[in-house]
Design a protein that fits this description.
Blueprint (H helix, E strand, L loop, with lengths): L2 H5 L10 E6 L10 H13 L4 H4 L17 E6 L10 H8 L6 E3 L7 E8 L5 E12 L3 H17 L6 H4 L39 E11 L4 H16 L8 H11 L8 E5 L4 E5 L13 H8 L1 H12 L3 E6 L2 H13 L9 E6 L13 E6 L17 E5 L4 E3 L10 H14 L30 H13 L11 H9 L1 H14 L3 H10 L8 H27 L14 H6 L9 H6 L6 H7 L3 H12 L7 H17 L16 H13 L3 E2 L25 H4 L7 H21 L5 H12 L15 H31 L1 H5 L9 H19 L11 H22 L8 E2 L11 E2 L1 H9 L7 H14 L3 H10 L1 H7 L9 H12 L17 E10 L12 E7 L2 E2 L3 E2 L5 E5 L5 E12 L4 E8 L8 E10 L5 E10 L9 E5 L1 E2 L8 H4 L29 H20 L8 H6 L4 H10 L14 H18 L7 H18 L6 H15 L3 H10 L2 H5 L9 H12 L10 H4 L5
Parallel strand pairs: 7-14, 9-11, 9-12, 10-11
Antiparallel strand pairs: 1-2, 1-6, 3-6, 4-5, 5-6, 7-8, 12-13, 15-16, 17-22, 17-24, 18-19, 18-20, 18-23, 21-22, 23-26, 24-25, 25-27
Main location: membrane
Pfam family, one: uDENN
Family: Belongs to the RAB6IP1 family.
Amino acid sequence: MSGTNAASGAAPCRFAHYFVICGIDTETGLEPDELAALYQWLEADRQGRDPDTAATGENFEQSPLKRTFKSKVLAHYPENVEWNPFDQDAVNMLCMPKGLSFRTQADSREPQFHSFLITREDGSRTYGFVHTFYEEVTSPQICSAMQTLYQMHQAENPSSATPSSSSSSSSSMDSLASSLDEADSPSSSSCRSAACGGYDASRDTLYVSKALCLITPMPFMHACRRFLSQVHRAVTASLPPPLPLESYVHNILYEVPLPPPGRSLKFHGVYEPIVCQRPGPGELPLADFPLGQTFPLLGVENLVQLFNCTLLEMQILLYSQDYQRLMTVAEGITTLLFPFQWQHVYVPILPASLLHFLDAPVPYLMGLQSKEGTDRSKLELPQEANLCFVDIDNHCIELPEDFPQFPNKPELIQELSEVLLRYGISPVGGAPPTSVPTSTTTLGSVSVSTRHPGLKSQQALRELEDDGRNGNLGGEQLAVLELLQGNATLERLQALAKRTGVRVEALRGVGGEGEAQGGRTAVDEEELRNAKLNVQLREVFASRFTMMFADYEAFVIQSAPDLESWLTNREQMHNFDKASFLSDQPEPYLPFLSHFIETQMFATFIDNKIMSQWEEKEPLLRVFDGRIDKARLYNVRAPSLRSSNYQRCTILKESAQAIEQRLLKIDHTAIHPHLLDMKIGQGKYEQGFFPKLQSDVLSVGPTNNKWSNRTATAQRRKDRHRQQTEHLTLDNDLKEKYMQEARSLGKNLRQPKLSDLSPAVIAQTNWKFVEGLLKECRMKTKRMLVEKMGREAVELGHGEANITGLEENTLIASLCDLLERIWSHGLQVKQGKSALWSHLLHYQAREETLEQQQAESPVSNGPERRKSESSLGMPSLRESVIQDMRHIQSMGEIKTDVGRARAWIRLSLEKKLLSQHLKRLLSRQALTKKLYKRYAFLRCEEEKEQFLFHLLSLNTVDYFCFTSVFTTIMIPYRAVIIPIKKLSNAMTTSNPWVCVSGELGDSGVRQITKNVLEMTFDSAFRPHTHIDAMFKCQNLGKLTTVQLGHDNSGLLAKWLVDCVMVRNEITGHTYKFPCGRWLGKGVDDGSLERVLIGELTSPNADEDCGRGCRTPDMQHSPGQTRRASITSMGGRGYKPTSAQIQEAIGEAVNSICKHFHKPEKERGSLTILLCGEVGLVGALELFFHNGFKSARLFQKTVFVWDFVEKAVAYMESADQMGDMQETAEPLGLTCVSLCHYVSAINSSPRNIGKDGKFQLLVCLGARDRLLIQWLPLLVECPVIQRMYEESALLRDRTTVNDLIAVLQTLHDFPITLEASLVKGIDL
């Protein structure tokens, strides 16, 4: 995918950079593989054994034919290329990941093909293509060494002569790596004779593996595969090739250019021409790995899920016996990411020596070779909480828990399935292809010169019939089967050719590859078909992103004046308006998009977009932007871009035609291979042996080559241009440094260094992981704080203001993932899928043992803490790591350890105890040492302290991440009713009841047992009496109202209540519902029940300051002063000015408008905005109380409701007398509605008192948009003159008209009232 990057810049346009030969060094002889020894050292260290004793000595338990021996790079041409230095260790390790393997004439020796890639530090890639074959060992020293090793093996294991035991191994590498894969051996050991299991130099012929490799800047997989197979064919053919092999190698290294963009190129192998093509500037970048093989291996549905996991940057482990399958799936999945690029560790083939990289606590995409017969359950992986495990050979994947699905997934699967079916490929994983290809590219690589062709053919047939053992890819199986069935015929044709003197190469050309239409071979047709299928499948994915991100540019924030200042401040910059982008997307897309826009690949994409202001556009971005512009031309910003309707890809046909035209009409033909100026007599041809090539002719290219001159000129021009612009732009090294820092969160380890694998280097690698984790923790906590603090954060210069619940949930899920990765770094022994929960269980077991011991002895040390006694009589809440774990363990809804760990993190975060809990957990150092290796993050003291400090900063804001996610669980609540003792009875003879309501529902009426009096003492030892009740109900969410009442029975029925406190006993959130009013007949307004509006209380001041800070309540702006409510006792003597009253009404209405402008899921409680302390009802009460003649001498208090009732009585009597007939019709209807509503409220069975009735009238009037119609009626009513002073606001026409205009704005919104407010009202 990134081949485009690798080829750009300074790299000249050569098709191949190196030709490499790896194999056995006959001079040094047989050497045990150091990498296997290193792996044993690592494995011993992982299992807690002494690593130094584990890796010493030979492993004589395994047959030497199954052991790993050291391979070497025997030769590479040229010696070095300036822009792509040759990394000998890496190339050797990736060419022969298993080291050397030996075979005898009794074993299968089919050539194998695989590819690999090396990612350089700047992210560019170099590709390697490897053809491995077996060559007869002619060195007597090697043969006698093998004989000796076999005899020693027999002496150590006398029973190993039996065939069954020769295939078993007790090596600890069985579970993760194989020293020598048995996938290529015959289908069962029983088919061999006992003698075949061993080696006898006098009787057996020994063969050893050798690899030919091409290293190229771009992934021309098919062309390289064909070239290498033809070179190998030239070695095994009975006649020498037409030219010395040096001519062909020299030709591909120096005389074959990269095809220019949008063009095709033909060059010549040993026997047949080879064609390759490169996409044009507006097309998807080159991807030559056949998706037609990737999709059948996994099935469309699994592949879309894997694609989704890759986009969300999870850890992805591919698992297969076949290296080429690993590479095909890895490259296939990354090519589908266009226009994004994988930014983290990417190792499609992970050598056995690098298995410690599976411990990497960062996102990765790696491929692990499985040993045949290894059970997946025995594969111990360091972390699985966020792992997507892809078992390629068994066509199945294991997905992480709880991640969002890709938008329009069913429609996408349907479209992909239709494309595959058009090419005869089943969309179901593991299904055989529905149409058999006419031929395959493996044909050229099949060796036909064997000693026993008949036996060989039968053996190969048996192998292929046993699907578990073949190394071929799904789509090729039947074709290879047919080919091998014809082996004997090919052998006879070859013999006939020798006798008649016909050139065998020509015969092979005709018979081997088979002519198709227009002189093209069947292989050419197959390649064309693969290329067309590839591009069509990729276009389907690309069109999804074009639709999803059609408007992304509108949300990119261009804030820096120049590149240098942008790079310098990259970390502080806010580059993309995420909140606005999400609010613009269709609802079904939000779960996925909110996660995706937090990924590193999206951040890098936006970085590239911003940098394109100052420098050349990154190639993928250029193509993507071009497509969006094109879509706009057709769409003219049609509404369809916003909708979630699935739109199919419209350019499938033309994309396939572009490739077909290039492959059918060749644009360029490279220079033919030709004789070189070579020494005569060297490199003599010997059938079956790869000759030693003459290095002097291969170390330099031609000087008179047209295209190389053209390249040099272009290069000089580029150099001049660079020198001219150097003083204008940043120094390149400095820029690269900034870019690396700007983008690295684990990306600094995109490719492990393969050269030096000493334990010291591994320790250094782990140290980089520790630093990366700490940096990621700092970034994540900062992001969570900035998003949550909202407007205050913006004022402090931190970017966007609002955070949606969806975004918050995404950030918290991302924090859970980070904690899992930290806890799984450097684990000694893995237990369960969640490393964090496993640690917590160890801690719990240890603490519970200590608790039992302390229960027996009177001395105690307090590991747990209790919330300090509240002066309001709420009993203290027990708080400890164990207590919170028990809450989670009692939740039957959570079935897995990963789920429990995430729930525990959410609960601790909501309680503002996450940092404290984790500190407590890690304070048990003996436990941490037992569970973690010395290099683990959790054992790096300084980093651990910084990490806990970053988490502590999250205590400054309020999260409801537990309450809002686990909405169906049962939660115990404690309600405490606190009376005002000085003025009333501390107890009541009546039967009190409460009903608690929250955003998710209500508790129902809960009767409280009479006189459940509790006495508590505050910090000054003053006694407090209160009524305490516990009840359990389904999660109510954030609490909004409490209905409190009693039945007025007994002598002491009147009751003056100060407030009601309600606490969630799991999260510890405590809500205060102020009352300050009487409940009882004949006192106050005669109410027997009140609806109280609550708010979350701050923790006490004497608690640690980290917990004392909190986000301003959602309904109050941070700087707003609280107003005394008219409903409170103290409020009766409070006389606000008319300006204050009007301001209060304006703010109350404004808050309601803001409420409705938020996304529906983010709105919070409307009840608080209507009836809360600074709500609409309170503001209107102030308005109605202004100038109201309430206190009368020697008479009981008059309430606003009395005025309303008198006004309604007047209207009703006037109506009966006929006075109302003269009024306009609408006014008459309004009159009727007001009378009807007041009558309904008065006839309600509830005893809510006069102030409660007025509150209800205002709420119903606001809901039904009648308030502004009722106000003029009340103003016009003569009753107003008796009950209001001349200066009252209600008697000022201008003020009333202003009030009506303000209330008019509420008509735009659908106000709905909580059930607790309107219960019992029949309209």
